[in-house]
């Protein structure tokens, strides 16, 4: 049974520590849209469950993200070409994020290039856009999107070497469809 927004707010509203076991348990049945961005940050480890550290960690993440190099003209060209194809191939299913807006394109380019520069042993791949999509729809700030994306990529990184990207993306989408069906439709 899915929990209500109020139940999530009660868990998130604690003064000192977020009960991660409880948050994980209630998240298994879906996360209401209004609290989804906050819950994802905790579930992915971007926000720490110790609220006394929250502001310091957030400022540090923002500063660290600003310092990552976001320039690579070769990768930028590839991303733009893939975004054009991605927009054309999936127009009817992409209501929340306008991939043609300059602001969103720049955000996507910055995040992907930052991720590649953050992990020097990773090369750009079209599948990165599909994994980034749900974070673009849900989170507001570029640094939050980046750190959630990094955390998600770390969680699936070991499988990228063992499985094909296609099978990895299909499992990822299956997971999203089961956890957040309204986002995938």
TrEMBL record:
MF terms from GO for this chain are: GTPase activator activity
Q: Where is the Rab-GAP TBC domain?
A: 30-185
Q: Which InterPro entries match?
A: Rab-GAP-TBC_dom (IPR000195), Rab-GAP_TBC_sf (IPR035969)
Name it.
Answer: Ankyrin repeat-containing protein
């Amino acid at each position: 049974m899915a929990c209500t927004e109020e139940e999530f707010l009660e868990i998130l509203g604690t003064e000192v520590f977020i009960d991660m076991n409880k948050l994980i348990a209630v998240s298994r049945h879906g996360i209401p849209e209004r609290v989804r961005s906050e819950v994802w940050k905790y579930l992915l480890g971007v926000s720490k469950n110790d609220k006394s550290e929250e502001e310091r960690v957030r400022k540090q993440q923002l500063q660290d993200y600003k310092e990552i190099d976001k320039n690579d003209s070769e990768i930028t060209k590839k991303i733009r070409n893939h975004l054009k194809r991605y927009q054309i191939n999936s127009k009817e299913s992409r209501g929340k994020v306008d991939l043609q807006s300059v602001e969103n394109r720049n955000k996507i380019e910055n995040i992907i290039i930052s991720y590649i520069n953050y992990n020097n042993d990773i090369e750009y791949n079209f599948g990165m856009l599909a994994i980034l999509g749900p974070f673009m729809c849900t989170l507001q700030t570029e640094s939050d999107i980046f750190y959630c994306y990094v955390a998600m990529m770390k969680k699936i990184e070991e499988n990228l070497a063992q499985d094909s990207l296609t099978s990895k993306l299909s499992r990822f989408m299956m997971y999203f469809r089961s956890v957040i069906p309204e986002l995938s439709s």
